[in-house]
Write a structure and sequence with these properties.
With about 500 residues, this protein is mostly helical. Helix content is about 60%, strand content about 5%. It contains 21 helices and 5 strands. The chain has a 5-stranded mixed sheet, covered by helices on one side. α4 packs parallel to α7. The protein is globular.
Length: about 500
């Protein structure tokens, strides 16, 4: 049955695919920023380092975060042979996919060329997209990219019904849940909005919904079974967010985090929305979707006892607000679209310089990428007689992962973040930072793996080097010892 839909109600834009030149330009920009960061320092950031450690083994689950990002790193590493290259290549691919999926959703909503350009430019004004995602984000970036794919696929299925498009939406929904747990909020809000919006309700197909739900549940089921067998994984997430904040404090925390997430985008969005506003079905639909996301977020927050919000938590849930601004305004009014594009392009160029620049010529306080782990890895190899043992224990995944990156794939580096119990040789090398020795998590892990406490370790040596690009800075040091691996009872 064909439904008659009034006005401009979510009609797709025919013949408006993204030009190949723009896709290549986007890829070139993202690759340049990634390449400059890798060139200025071989040291990986914190989240990237965790993924390098976890991707040494394929498993149904790892930490309190879902496993899809780690699976992708594992697969790319097996394909390319380089974990570090795989980490940067995956980041570039996900950011490219995110922008293209958002633009695909904009086409399905019937946005014109100027509106789509304003939407993409708006994404460049969101710090999580233009800065954090290019610097260190992993799970949040993946969840937002796949969430944008879910939105595009669902709208495409409404415009062009087909069972395989519904199945594709289901697979993407499962992938979103395998990326980050809080993607569930968006996945609940989207069908609620589709069911309640008069325009999309006219195209609602129960058979399609059942296909999406069935395929998604089957694809997610193996990890769901792993979660059921490892409830401590979700407990760690709940412990991070649980508290006893009152309703007023909860709302204040949520609003403050929202404001931080969308600064500086909202500084242009508010006057543009006021001066260039217009009624459109696409704008109303996205406004309803944003309202549904906020309502679901607050329901989940109250139910789980959340007492704090991190701005990056909004990334997989409200990534589409720049699309709403483009759909609910006329970019030609007072040349708001051109202004937005100009500011977005300028900010993208500033970030391309600032991201490597903060490592190269930043302030006196070094960043994590200034830490000279490649130099320390070379010194350790030299002190160990020119060879690195097959298995090394490290006190934290930041030094552990970066040492492994310097030593190569043949070395297995185990840290407290590793959830599996790999067999150890009778004698194993332990490498530690001084600040980790008093951490309860490290102490518990060390006792479980070796039966030792930090006070009982006889250190064999130490390596030290100044931070990259900070020759006068305080040296970074690592201790090492040969320990007998006798797991604690």
């Amino acid at each position: 049955m064909t439904f008659r839909v009034p006005g401009d109600a979510l009609r797709p834009s025919p013949g408006q695919a993204v030009p190949a030149a723009w896709v290549l330009l986007l890829l070139a920009y993202l690759s340049l920023v990634a390449g400059l960061q890798a060139a200025v320092s071989p040291t990986l950031e914190l989240d990237q380092a965790e993924q390098l450690i976890l991707a040494q083994k394929l498993a149904w689950g790892y930490t309190n975060q879902p496993p899809l990002y780690t699976w992708l790193v594992w697969g790319l590493t097996a394909l390319t042979g380089s974990v570090v290259f795989s980490l940067w290549a995956l980041k570039v691919a996900l950011l490219t996919g995110f922008v293209l999926a958002c633009d695909g959703a904009a086409r399905c909503l019937g946005l014109g060329t100027a509106q789509r350009a304003a939407a993409v430019a708006g994404l460049a004004l969101v710090p999580a997209v233009i800065w954090e995602a290019q610097r260190d984000l992993t799970h949040s970036l993946l969840a937002a990219s796949i969430g944008a794919g879910v939105l595009w696929s669902a709208l495409d299925s409404l415009n062009r019904p087909a069972w395989w498009r519904d199945a594709r939406t289901g697979l993407l929904a499962a992938a979103a849940l395998l990326s980050k747990h809080n993607a569930l909020i968006f996945l609940v809000a989207l069908p609620l909005t589709l069911a309640c919006s008069p325009v999309t309700r006219a195209r609602w197909r129960w058979g399609g919904l059942l296909t999406v739900a069935g395929v998604g549940a089957l694809a997610w089921a193996p990890h769901g079974a792993w979660l059921a067998a490892h409830p401590e994984s979700l407990n760690r997430t709940l412990q991070k967010i649980h508290g006893d904040a009152g309703a007023a404090q909860l709302m204040a925390e949520a609003f403050q985090a929202l404001l931080g997430f969308f600064t500086p985008w909202w500084l242009l969005a508010l006057p543009m929305a006021w001066q260039a506003r217009r009624l459109s079905e696409a704008g109303r639909f996205l406004a309803h979707l944003a309202g549904a996301v906020v309502c679901c977020l607050l329901v989940f927050a109250v139910a789980l006892g959340v007492d704090r919000f991190s701005p990056r938590w909004y990334f997989p849930q409200l990534f589409f607000l720049p699309l709403w601004l483009a759909a609910a305004t006329d970019p030609a009014v007072r040349q708001w679209g051109r202004r937005l594009c100009a500011v977005g392009a300028l900010l993208a160029l500033v970030v391309a310089v600032a991201l490597p620049g903060r490592v190269w010529w930043g302030g006196a306080r070094p960043t994590r990428q200034n830490l000279p782990y490649a130099e320390l890895a070379a010194q350790l190899r030299q002190q160990w007689g020119g060879t690195v043992p097959r298995v090394v224990l490290a006190s934290h995944h930041l030094p552990g992962a970066n040492l492994k990156a310097a030593w190569g794939a043949d070395v297995l580096v185990l840290t407290p973040v590793v959830p599996w119990a790999a067999p150890l040789p009778s004698e194993v090398m332990l490498v530690a930072r001084a600040e980790d020795l008093t951490e309860p998590r490290f102490q518990t892990w060390l006792a479980a793996r070796t039966g030792l406490t930090p006070d009982g370790i006889r250190w064999s040596g130490e390596v030290a080097a100044p931070p990259y690009h900070r020759p006068q800075g305080a040296p970074v040091a690592l201790r090492w010892a040969r320990v007998v691996a006798e797991p604690g009872k």
